[in-house]
Design brief:
mainly alpha; single chain; 383 residues
Length: 383
């Protein structure tokens, strides 16, 4: 009878010694030993750091004493060093997860912002937004010129040939105010009674905000295409405004129409121009990146463009509130012009002076903006 050789070494003194499965090798035993020694020497400081971080998370910075506050960055750097060593000697995964979570929580406590959401929004609108707008001066001029060109072109085209109105203005936006509309109908729209608080300030204002913010964000978002679509959107929005002005001009209602538009247009068109300017900031850094690569230039200057766009969306919220309710509440043309003039002055003062180092809206001097180093940030190690 023949047998199959299974590769098992023959027994006996002449055969090789069998390998015993399940006995750890010497390097593995050393790693286990080093792991235990590693935890035993450092675990006390980890627990202390975890306790301090938990107290700060629950009760704020007042939850720890001054001595503990000074000790926290030292414990944080020690835990960060422990994490680096733990990764290099391949300790158990649970310990790695614990140290990663602990160092992340400690990082947010040591280096995280010290302001609340409301304080952050206040700083944005008091300093960040107006400062970003002031640094985009020539971009705003170009955006304003593009919209002004569109308004002039729309007015000339529709005034010379009324049918241009249907080619420029969508039917849904026209609302029956086309070349066939009578002067009485146009006047009834300009001086229509207020629809009430719910319809005006909530329903209609919400619709206006959603529609306008979508168009404004689009003009900002397409700035990466060398700014050409941004300029075209600005010109097109100007064409619509010019077409409406021409229709009312032909019915002898131009002044009333300008007053009707200006009460919210100062804020609304200003927001469109700012969003367009933000798109042009992006376009400039793509076309002329300077000594940086295009991605580097966008990462450096893209924050300015994003700040302008976010602030402009907030302006559109205010414009929707004005257009949805106040425009029809104020039904006298001269009062509408007065309201528009006041808003124009307020926006001008806000953008020109708010947040400057030597001036704020109260007229009191302010310390120049500098990034204050946090009390225990010096020499900190970031993960």
């Amino acid at each position: 009878m023949t047998t199959v050789d299974m590769g098992v070494p023959a027994a006996g003194p002449a055969g090789p010694a069998p390998t015993i499965i399940g006995v750890p090798s010497e390097p593995r035993a050393q790693i286990v030993l080093r792991s235990a020694e590693f935890r035993r020497g450092r675990e006390e400081s980890w627990r202390e750091l975890e306790d301090l971080v938990t107290r700060v998370e629950k009760r704020g910075i007042n939850g720890v004493s001054a001595d503990e506050l000074q000790k926290m960055p030292l414990l944080y750097r020690s835990a960060l060093s422990s994490l680096s060593v733990a990764r290099s000697i391949a300790l158990d995964r649970n310990l790695l997860r614990y140290l990663e979570a602990l160092t992340l929580r400690a990082y947010l406590v040591v280096y995280g912002p010290r302001t609340s959401l409301l304080a952050g929004l206040g700083h944005f609108f008091r300093y960040g937004f107006p400062d970003a707008v002031r640094r985009a001066g020539w971009h705003i001029l170009i955006a304003f010129a593009a919209m002004a060109l569109g308004i002039a072109a729309g007015f000339v085209l529709v005034n010379s040939e009324a049918e241009w109105f249907n080619a420029i203005v969508p039917d849904g936006l026209a609302g029956g105010r086309g070349p066939s509309a009578s002067a009485e109908y146009l006047r009834s729209v300009l001086f229509a009674p207020w629809d009430g608080f719910k319809e005006g300030f909530i329903v209609f204002a919400n619709y206006l905000f959603q529609n306008n913010s979508m168009v404004a964000i689009l003009s900002f978002g397409v700035g990466f295409m060398a700014g050409v679509p941004t300029l075209l959107l600005l010109v097109y929005n100007g064409l619509i405004v010019g077409a409406f002005l021409a229709i009312h001009y032909q019915r002898g209602l131009l002044i009333d129409c300008i007053g009707w538009l200006s009460i919210h247009g100062v804020t609304e068109l200003g927001a469109f121009i700012l969003c367009g300017a933000a798109g042009l900031v992006v376009a400039e850094k793509i076309i002329f990146p300077g000594r940086y690569s295009r991605l580097e230039a966008l990462s450096i200057h893209g924050k300015q463009a994003a700040i302008i766009a976010c602030g402009a969306v907030a302006m559109l919220f205010i414009a929707g509130f004005i257009e949805g309710g106040l425009r029809q509440l104020i039904n006298v043309t001269s009062w509408r012009f007065a309201f528009a003039a006041v808003t124009a002055v307020l926006w001008g003062v806000y953008f020109l002076y708010c947040g400057k180092a030597s001036f704020d809206l109260t007229g009191s001097p302010r310390i120049a903006k500098t990034r204050r180093q946090k009390p225990f940030e010096q020499g900190g190690v970031q993960p």
